[in-house]
Design a protein that fits this description.
With about 280 residues, this protein is an alpha/beta fold. It folds into 2 domains: about 150 residues, 3-Layer(aba) Sandwich (Rossmann fold); about 110 residues, Dihydrodipicolinate Reductase, domain 2 (2-Layer Sandwich), CATH 3.30.360.10. Helix content is about 35%, strand content about 25%. The protein contains 10 helices and 11 strands. The strands form 2 sheets. A 7-stranded parallel sheet has the order 3-2-1-4-5-6-11, with helices on both faces. The chain has a 4-stranded mixed sheet with strand order 8-7-9-10, covered by helices on one side. A hairpin with a 2-residue loop joins strand 9 and strand 10. Helix 1 packs across helix 9, helix 3 crosses helix 4 and helix 6 runs parallel beside helix 7. The longest helix is centred in the middle third of the chain and has 16 residues. The chain starts with 6 loop residues before the first strand and ends in a 7-residue tail after the last helix.
Length: about 280
């Protein structure tokens, strides 16, 4: 009996915190095979191999050439930087491959550029690949739709001290869903920043608070503060493996789809409206 074909996976930024977690998960899960990784130009091959051996990976093909990376794999898992992601997207699109994007911090122009590659590639992008987070997103959407703007929305997130962007991509995703549920755009509801200047909060604003410290994987909570009561919805991640496993699940799902730009809501079938 012939063995079922597995999906060939490449991991961009393979020596980063998330890169190593992705590699560990790919090696542990069925239905996928690790075939390549990428690092920045000028990487130290000996050092890279030593780092990857700590997660049980030996003799992996490593390159800084995005075209070679895309040639090796059916799908590229990418949690790097906006600039690196756009270069990888171009290479993946040439081969009509799969690009799983967990990168955050894109500008509006970069988002538009990434979306163009979905004419040829199957792109799944998300600020967070955790199943639990997307349950939270659905609950926030429902709460924001049912509670009017006399309930102020405040989104809090905390991550490890090495995270560069703030608010996190997940926090912004939660804000976008809440704003849309109230028939508004987040850019019209998000204050520039919290300040110490006295002043009344504008009705309908969606506030954000960010903290950085230690090695916290991710904490997100959404508070609806209304007249006489507070409702809080919260998710806490304890391991990066929840994001890695979600990204691999997305790659397997995308392998059965046509070229296009998808989200984890598509992957998990969460676009059906709750009653």
């Amino acid at each position: 009996m012939s063995q079922e074909k597995t999906l060939k996976i490449a991991v961009a930024g393979c020596c980063g915190r998330m890169g190593q977690t992705l590699i560990k998960s790919v090696l542990a899960l069925e239905g996928v095979t690790l075939v390549a990784g990428s690092e920045r130009p000028g990487f130290d091959e000996q050092l890279v191999n030593a780092q990857l051996e700590t997660v049980g990976c030996k003799n992996l093909f490593i390159t800084s050439n995005t075209d070679l990376l895309a040639e090796e794999a059916d799908a590229v898992l990418d949690f790097t930087s906006p600039e690196s992601t756009l270069a990888i997207a171009a290479a993946v699109a040439k081969r009509r491959g799969i690009h799983i994007v967990g990168t955050t911090g894109f500008s509006d122009d970069q988002k538009k550029e990434l979306a163009k590659f979905a004419r040829d590639a199957r792109i799944v992008q998300s600020g967070n690949f955790s199943l639990g987070i997307h349950m939270l997103v659905k609950l926030v959407e429902q709460a924001a739709r049912l509670l009017d703007d006399s309930y102020d929305i405040e989104i809090f997130e905390m991550h490890h001290k090495h995270k560069l962007d703030a608010p996190s991509g997940t926090a912004l995703m939660l804000g976008e869903v809440a704003a849309k549920a109230r028939k508004a755009a987040l850019k019209d509801r998000k204050p520039a920043e919290h300040t110490d200047i006295p002043g009344e909060r504008k009705r309908g604003d969606i506030g954000f608070s960010s903290l950085r410290g230690g090695d916290i994987v991710g904490v997100h909570s959404v508070m609806f503060a209304g007249p006489g009561e507070v409702i809080e919805l919260k998710h806490q991640g304890f391991s990066r493996e929840i994001y890695a496993n979600g990204a691999i699940h997305a790659a397997l799902w995308a392998s059965k789809q046509k070229p296009g730009f998808y989200s984890m809501r598509d992957v998990l079938g969460l676009d059906t409206k709750l009653p």
